[in-house]
Write a structure and sequence with these properties.
The protein has helices at residues 7-19, 24-39, 46-80, 82-116, 131-141, 147-162, 169-176, 180-190, 208-218, 272-278, 286-296, 330-349, and strands spanning 197-199, 222-233, 245-247, 251-256, 262-270, 304-310, 317-326. With 352 residues, the protein is an alpha+beta fold.
Length: 352
């Protein structure tokens, strides 16, 4: 580095500076995970250590014999071929240094992502990341040198720190197998999605988008190659995610109609791995996709459609919502759904 500091010292300074700009709970979860990433340390329960110590003592004699034998063999090799030993040590040091540099770069980017996270997305309490998950993550992150890929892994760490269990082991493997072409294809196609739904009309039957979708189907990130029919029952709820709605990453599309009705249109869907990968992307253009979906619904039986914006990384809506479609005037539609919501609340309070 130009200032003469080691990477470790620079990272330590960065962590210290960043902690002051983070909410306390994020500081504990994210910085704790970053420390585990950089230092490779994992807290081990005392009870487990006690049991392990007892078992280890029983094996100490055998281990000493094995270590003595290995040491003798190593000394023999070193005496016979010192150049081989030197090359081995050079390789070990080079590989370890490269992996450590990659870990620290992912850590730096994770701190940047954490500082940029909206404050209202922070939960009140956050459990620690699972140790097996963390071991898998470190194995992937330390072998990535491309900055775009490192930033992707940094986002994974930040989001997993805020909500452990967000990314499965299968999702980590999928992310590790992303190359630039596949990532670019997924970025383009995911911008046409609302939640896990991509209207078939936005894909077409030929052209670049259609080709991207076909390749992503082969990659296991999209399902429904023939345009699966999308259908959900219609119900009314009190401004929350419920049946009769579509939930996106930044918006909530609520559809109102008779409870016996159903809505349908042709669509393809993000797979489970695709859904988890999409969580790393900003919902660019999701509002426009929601407006397009509103036009896809059949006109018969639909009383109206409201688009709500969501607080980041939550399912809480931001009033008042935008009416995309309605029978009659917008004011009449809002009065009708408010009246029905009040009836539902009253019925629940009465125990019916």
């Amino acid at each position: 580095m130009d200032d003469g500091k080691s990477n470790g010292s620079g990272l330590s300074d960065l962590i210290t500076a960043a902690v002051g700009g983070l909410p306390a709970v994020v500081s504990k979860s994210v910085v704790g995970a970053i420390h585990r990433l950089v230092a490779g340390s994992i807290d081990v329960p005392a009870t487990w250590l006690a049991g392990y110590k007892e078992q280890a003592e029983d094996r100490n004699y055998e281990k000493r014999l094995v270590r003595r034998g290995l040491a003798d063999a190593a000394l023999k090799i070193a005496a016979e071929d010192p150049e081989l030993v030197r090359r081995t040590l050079d390789r070990i040091i080079s590989e370890s240094s490269r992996k450590q540099l990659n870990r620290e770069q992912v850590a730096r980017l994770a701190l940047e992502e954490a500082v940029a996270e909206p404050r209202q997305t922070v939960p009140n309490d956050v459990p620690e990341i699972d140790e097996d998950w963390m071991a898998r993550f470190v194995g992937y992150a330390e072998n990535v040198s491309n900055e775009d890929a490192q930033r992707l892994w940094a986002r994974v760490l930040v989001k997993e720190s805020a909500s452990p269990g967000t990314f499965s082991g299968a999702a980590l493997r999928t992310i590790s197998e992303l190359d630039r072409g596949k990532a670019a294809r997924f970025q383009r196609v995911s911008e046409l999605s609302f939640g896990n739904v991509i209207p078939r009309s936005l894909i077409g039957t030929s052209g670049p988008v259609f080709s991207d979708v076909r390749l992503l189907i082969d990659d296991g990130l999209i399902s429904g190659s023939e345009g699966s029919q999308f259908a959900k029952p219609l119900t009314t709820s009190e401004r929350r995610v419920d049946e009769g709605s579509l939930i996106g990453r930044g918006f909530f599309l609520q559809v109102f109609g008779p409870s016996a009705s159903s809505l349908s249109f042709n669509a393809v869907f993000l797979s489970d791995a695709g859904i988890q990968l999409a969580r790393l992307l900003n919902p660019v253009g999701e509002r426009e996709v929601a407006e397009r979906i509103a036009l896809e619904f059949p006109h018969d039986g639909i009383e109206g459609i409201i688009l709500w914006e969501l607080y980041p990384n939550t399912t809480k809506v931001i009033p008042p919502g935008v009416v995309l479609r309605s029978q009659g005037t917008e004011a009449e539609f809002r009065q009708a759904i408010n009246r029905r919501a009040s009836e539902i609340i009253a019925a629940r309070q009465a125990g019916r």
